Amino acid sequence: MSREDKMPLATLTTNLPDEKFPSDFNKAFSEFLAVLFNKPAANFVLLVDPGRRFTIGGTTEPAVMLVIKSVGSYNETSNIEYSKKISDYVKETLGVGNDRCVIHFQAIEAYEVGKHGTTLKEFLKK
């Protein structure tokens, strides 16, 4: 599967209100993640879910949970670099410290993603 064939799915959930996000956050964060994961920004699916009732460690201080599902992107070593760079981006952009930023890297298979009325695996065979 080539770089162009991968379609990462990212969900950022936070207790921050929507007003705390820069107006171009989705575009800028997608582009940041595309560079980090070496994938086209056009292939990223990003859902930002602000204003949620959300706690880490029992407190409601500003916090972020990011789940990134992707085909063929993760390993024990690269996830360390990804965590650092994503946490730094979240701190710089949203003001949430890395102690309040949880990231879940979830490896998925191409047959687990639907696109164009079929699975990504079948779509890529065409």
Describe the structure.
- The chain has 126 residues and is of the alpha/beta class.
- It has one domain (3-125): Macrophage Migration Inhibitory Factor (2-Layer Sandwich).
- The protein has 3 helices and 6 strands; from the N terminus they run E-H-E-E-H-E-E-E-H.
- The chain has helices spanning 25-37, 76-94, 120-125; strands spanning 9-14, 45-49, 64-71, 101-108, 114-115, 118-119.
- The strands form 2 sheets. Strands 2-1-3-4 form a 4-stranded mixed sheet, with helices on one face. Strands 5-6 form a two-stranded antiparallel sheet.
- Helix 2 (76-94) links the parallel strand 3 and strand 4.
- It is globular, with a radius of gyration of 15 Å.
- The mean pLDDT is 91.
- Tautomerization of D-dopachrome with decarboxylation to give 5,6-dihydroxyindole (DHI).
- Keywords: Acetylation, Cytoplasm, Lyase, Melanin biosynthesis.
- Its main location: cytoplasm.
- InterPro entries: Macrophage_inhib_fac, Tautomerase/MIF_sf.
- This is D-dopachrome decarboxylase.
Number of domains: 1
The proportion of residues in beta strands is 15-25%
- Detail the poorly predicted runs: none
Tell me the name of the CATH class: Alpha Beta
**What is the CATH topology assignment?**
Macrophage Migration Inhibitory Factor
User: Largest sheet at a glance?
Assistant: 4 strands, mixed
Work out the number of β strands. 6
- SSE sequence, one letter per element: EHEEHEEEH
- Termini Cα gap: 13 Å
Helix fraction by DSSP (H/I, runs of at least 4): 25-40%
Category by helix and strand content: alpha/beta
- Identify the CATH homologous superfamily: Macrophage Migration Inhibitory Factor
Radius of gyration: 15 Å
